[in-house]
Hints:
It contains seven helices and ten strands. By secondary structure, the chain is α/β, with parallel strands linked by helices. The strands form two sheets. Strands 7-6-5-8-9-10 form a six-stranded parallel sheet, sandwiched between helices. A four-stranded antiparallel sheet has the order 2-1-4-3, sandwiched between helices. Helix 3 links the parallel strand 5 and strand 6. The longest helix is centred in the last third of the chain and has 18 residues. It is elongated.
Amino acid sequence: xxxxxxxxxxxxxxxxxxxxxxxxxxxxxxxxxxxxxxxxxxxxxxxxxxxxxxxxxxxxxxxxxxxxxxxxxxxxxxxxxxxxxxxxxxxxxxxxxxxxxxxxxxxxxxxxxxxxxxxxxxxxxxxxxxxxxxxxxxxxxxxxxxxxxxxxxxxxxxxxxxxxxxxxxxxxxxxxxxxxxxxxxxxxxxxxxxxxxxxxxxxxxxxxxxxxxxxxxxxxxxxxxxxxxxx
Length: 231
């Protein structure tokens, strides 16, 4: 591999940005494709979209010969805002599904090791936590505190950083008031359709455990089925 390409690929990995190394199998020539780039004129654009979603490397036949796509995507993360009963059920299921999970809640009575054993738990305000571990396109955010003082900031950050899933607990009336606040903050209303609210798949969930199943289903669907931005 060309050393400059290797350095660029490592930089993308370190910054949790997805990239694909394209290698022609006939002559070994290579190029690096970043997820954030414009691929509209690339003959492999549809293949890139599929690979960025699946994270799977492999050989692709083209009109000019076979190429091998080495896919590098960050491991998907789930940031849950709120150490509530739904979260207690959601965390172990999400970890089984392969998500790296972080729970954030400044309410130390809820965010305890006893309630979330072995979990990455941050008993602090989201503003402080996200300052050091920012959101990105391979992160899902589920806000379930029902408290605007805690939920609003991470939801706004999720919209700004193109998180692949953004969900918020609350009724349609509650969500309507939330969008009024976001509009007052200067957010583009065109972004609001990206918020899954009321949160989770519409499966008639009632208990915290059932709601957790619905939320995880929405997250997996967004990760595996949603189109890649800009592709």
